[in-house]
From TrEMBL:
<feature type="domain" description="Quinolinate phosphoribosyl transferase C-terminal">
    <location>
        <begin position="107"/>
        <end position="278"/>
    </location>
</feature>
<protein>
    <recommendedName>
        <fullName>Putative pyrophosphorylase ModD</fullName>
    </recommendedName>
</protein>
<dbReference type="InterPro" id="IPR006242">
    <property type="entry name" value="ModD"/>
</dbReference>
<dbReference type="GO" id="GO:0004514">
    <property type="term" value="F:nicotinate-nucleotide diphosphorylase (carboxylating) activity"/>
</dbReference>
<dbReference type="Pfam" id="PF01729">
    <property type="entry name" value="QRPTase_C"/>
</dbReference>
<dbReference type="GO" id="GO:0005737">
    <property type="term" value="C:cytoplasm"/>
</dbReference>
<keyword id="KW-0808">Transferase</keyword>
<dbReference type="InterPro" id="IPR022412">
    <property type="entry name" value="Quinolinate_PRibosylTrfase_N"/>
</dbReference>
<dbReference type="GO" id="GO:0034213">
    <property type="term" value="P:quinolinate catabolic process"/>
</dbReference>
<dbReference type="InterPro" id="IPR037128">
    <property type="entry name" value="Quinolinate_PRibosylTase_N_sf"/>
</dbReference>
<dbReference type="InterPro" id="IPR036068">
    <property type="entry name" value="Nicotinate_pribotase-like_C"/>
</dbReference>
<dbReference type="InterPro" id="IPR013785">
    <property type="entry name" value="Aldolase_TIM"/>
</dbReference>
<keyword id="KW-0328">Glycosyltransferase</keyword>
<feature type="domain" description="Quinolinate phosphoribosyl transferase N-terminal">
    <location>
        <begin position="22"/>
        <end position="105"/>
    </location>
</feature>
<dbReference type="GO" id="GO:0009435">
    <property type="term" value="P:NAD+ biosynthetic process"/>
</dbReference>
<comment type="similarity">
    <text>Belongs to the NadC/ModD family.</text>
</comment>
<dbReference type="Pfam" id="PF02749">
    <property type="entry name" value="QRPTase_N"/>
</dbReference>
Amino acid sequence: MVPRLADSALLALLAEDTPFGDLTTDSLDIGARPGRLVMRARAPMVLCGVEEAVRLCQLTGAEARAHHASGDRIAADTVVLSAEGSAASLHLAWKVAQTLMEYASGIASAARLMVDAARAENPAAMVATTRKAFPGTRALAMRAAQAGGAIPHRLGLSETLLVFAEHRAFLDPGERAGHLAALRARCPERRLVVEVCGDEEARAAALAGAEVLQLERFSPADVAALAAWLAATPAAAGVTLAAAGGVTPENAGAYVRAGARVLVTSAPYFAKPKDIKVVIEALPAL
């Protein structure tokens, strides 16, 4: 697997950490001495970001290799990366590579927890992570979510037809069906998703031609009631239910049992990072 982040992005991360060099290593005059760096998981996790971590080491001049790939479930004390190079190169890469993997693995592990909970109820259920990652981190956050088995909800405004209440504020409520028909005509290759905030609004959107109903903060019981209505309403046949807002690993199964095919969430982005232990040791000089 190749890094998702380009060298330019990785070099920017390194420059952020060492804007004027490594004062301690340089002042100790140990930069040229050879050494080895080993990174291990402190606890079980779904690993992510190791390819970027390897490349960070290479960009500082070290030789590095990954012992596992992003998406692998690994046990505590598993070696995930090793590198050899000068003390200068290892210290330049160390903290950036470690921190990147810790945050990405936290997201991946949280996503996998929710995916497993959903698919225990329905193997076809999908967890879709939103674009609400911290600005500037979306590429890595989405890589991490995918490593955990989730799919992208929408990567940006250019990608998906998703009608929010904030869009409808500018439209005539009596022309709902006409507006949705116009969207389908203008973007025939896209599925039409409508966010709804209550049962009445959901039923109206389904009858007006929505293909996916994004249910904002519906309870599992509300989802079940809507799913039953859809099943008994031929004019709304084929509508997909996506539960959004307040979905957690603890209630994911309940939402899927109720009839949600997709769980839309930002929760994995706020997961606690997974600890990576780093050991750096000197090697005999050649």
